[in-house]
């Protein structure tokens, strides 16, 4: 089951990264930044999201598929459902521990 979770995570991230690339190619990179700058920021955000997801998959208290992770300019937004208050706090703690995270916002419920 863990192997299937890892495969699904990789496929999800690959799809997200390909979508980011198409925005840059079509000239829709956000904030008026150059494509190179936007691309670097998006890669950093994607790496942060991937690392948080890896942390969640490895942690017994958190089901990575019940939590959505969105990262923009180092600000991480967690949404979805966790088991209880303890799992919510653990998710926040894991997200904050990842390099490059500037702030974590949560709308997690239980």
From TrEMBL:
Record InterPro entries: BON_dom, Lipoprotein_DolP
Protein name: BON domain-containing protein
Superkingdom of the organism of origin: Bacteria
Organism taxonomic ancestry: Bacteria, Pseudomonadati, Pseudomonadota, Gammaproteobacteria, Chromatiales
Domain (BON): residue spans on this chain: 44-110
